Structure formats: C-alpha cells, structure tokens
Amino acid sequence: MGRHRDRTPGRPVLPGGRSRTAAPDRKRGPRVIDLVADRFPGSLLALDTAGPGIVDHQNQHGALSKAEARMSWACADPIRLGDCRPGTQVLASHTLSSLPPRMYDELPPA
Q1: Residue 90: other Cβ atoms inside 10 A
Q2: pLDDT for 45-104, tens place per residue?
Q3: In a 10 Å sphere around its CB, with 0-12 CB exposed, 13-18 middle and 19+ buried, how is residue 78 labelled?
Q4: CA within 13 Å, CB half, 99
Q5: Rounded CA gap, 72 and 78, in Å?
Q6: Is residue 10 part of a domain?
Q7: Mean pLDDT throughout 6-27?
Q8: Do 1 and 39 meet the contact criterion of CB atoms below 8 Å apart?
Q9: Cα separation of 71 and 99, whole Å?
Q10: Between these two residues, 21 and 58, which has the higher pLDDT value?
Q11: Could you tell me the residue range of the domain that residue 65 belongs to?
C-alpha cells in the first residue's frame, strides 16, 4: 500500500484499490479491508473487484495476459465484503451495466 501522507482532520479520504495489486492471493484478498480500515479509520473504500470469470480467464485476455502480475482472488459477490470486518458495510455495488443514473448520464456518447 505504500506510505500515506498525514491527512487533514475532517477532510474526506477515499482510498482506492484494484484487485490486481490489493489482493495478490486468495488468503489475503479480503485482508485489504482490514489494512485500509486500520490506516484510515472512518474512510470510504472504493474497490474495483474482479469476478471469477475474469480471474479464471486472465491468461486469455488481451491486456491482462500481457501483465506480469496475476490475480488469484476473485470476488463473486462484493456485498460479502461487508462480512470481512465487523462494522463494515457495503454502501453500493455496481457493474458497468448497472451504473447509478447520475454516473451513467455523465458518460461520453459512444
């Protein structure tokens, strides 16, 4: 996770992580919730998780197959991440086909 700067009290922080770097193996995948919660108490965490279909077929994927890092942890149900640590709750979970209307409206035309 690297070093973080001391944050200004009361200023919002939104740490983000990608499953490729934040979850290098199956046992440590959900542990990222603990790491962020311990370093940034009360913060919101935005994760870009990968489902089993992506993880299981990354060697056949154009861009992913060329990356040296391999994903080995899949998150089939992001709502279950709320069970990883007491007091944690998932505020929202979306796929590209189920974006919130305000976010969808801001996307550029195809």
Answers
A1: 15
A2: 777 788 888 889 999 988 889 988 888 778 888 888 888 888 888 888 888 788 889 988
A3: middle
A4: 9
A5: 16
A6: no
A7: 53
A8: yes
A9: 24
A10: 58
A11: 16-106
Domains contained in the chain, number: 1
The stretches of 1-110 forming alpha helices (DSSP H) are 19-22, 31-39, 52-56, 62-66, 101-106
Residue 18: HSE in the Cβ half-sphere, 13 Å Cα cutoff: 6
Measure Cα distances from 104 to 6, 44, 52, 58, 71 in Å: 34, 21, 25, 27, 28
Evaluate whether residue 9 is within a structural domain.
Answer: no
State the CB neighbour count (10 A cutoff) for residue 29: 20
At 104, the amino acid letter reads: Y
Judged against a pLDDT cut of 60, whether residue 18 lies above it is answered with no
The rounded distance, in Å, linking the Cα atoms of 82 and 101 is 24
In a domain, 96, yes or no: yes
Q: Tell me, yes or no, whether 50 lies in a domain.
A: yes
